[in-house]
Hints:
Membrane topology: Multi-pass membrane protein
Number of domains: 1
Shape: globular
Structural class: mainly alpha
Keywords: Membrane, Transmembrane, Transmembrane helix
Subcellular location: Membrane
Low-confidence stretches: 293-310
Distance between the termini: 26 Å
Radius of gyration: 19 Å
Organism: Hoeflea alexandrii
Oligomer: single chain
Main location: membrane
Amino acid sequence: MGKASFIDIVLWLALAAMWSSSYAVIKIGVATLEPAVLVFGRLLVGSVIIYTVMRWRGLALSRDPAVWFSYGVTGLLGSAAPFLLITHGEQSVDSALASILMGASPVMTLLLAAWLIPQERLTLRTSVGIIGGLSGVAVLVGPAALAGLGAQLGGQLAILAATACYAASTVYIRRAVTRPPLEMAAGSMLFASLIMGCVLALSGAQLGQMDFGVTSLGAVLYLGLFSTACANLIYFHLVPRLGATRMSQVNFAVPVGGAWLGFLLLGEALTTQRLIALAIIIGSIYLGTSRPAKPLNGQGTPPPADHPARR
């Protein structure tokens, strides 16, 4: 791993911007499209682009049924389910709040990895990061939601469920997946498109009653082209060049960028409560994903950073 070039830095910033902006664009898309339609369109565009790049690079999808099972698991947990949950949640939750809630995804990954992967036992540092991250979510959701009275509780829970899906996908990839990253991205994205096509067919969505204007189609194309396809390709390009540690720092930029874009583009509130929760969550991500510390039991290593390749 060499020193980051100017192009690498530009690509890193572009990646952070693509993932940060996805929440604001989803909010725009769900104003006129049903969640299943928006997600299916996004996945279809992204899968076609990534599959084309994979073939151009001389790779192909495996014919092994076990590998196709891994495509299915990662497609469901890493793309179809969280995309649908986030899009459904943003029908009632604004994009700034959604992006901050999604900042808990690395913390969820640390907790799940410590539970399921023996080599990734908890350290004092990651334990503090997990507690801090969950505390930040509690501050963000607020006491009204904890009492079952929050007007946005259903949407908030859907977005938190999406973070659990990303965590489960990441842990599964660490434990079971050995295929090349670009092949996995293409296979999982194609499988996710198939899943969402079935969901759309069963949802009874009234396509004829939806507004497929410039704004709606623009949201679908932006999410598919930039937040899904280009973001995945940039991520897979940068990881071997910058290393996992430096790439993990994108976790700091996504909730911050998402919150500010929601404020600047959509006029969403940046309340004191949200800023405090954002600071707690970002600090917790830093504690959980930064340099190794001594494990609580004297063995193992802390979990690596979350793999946020599908926002």
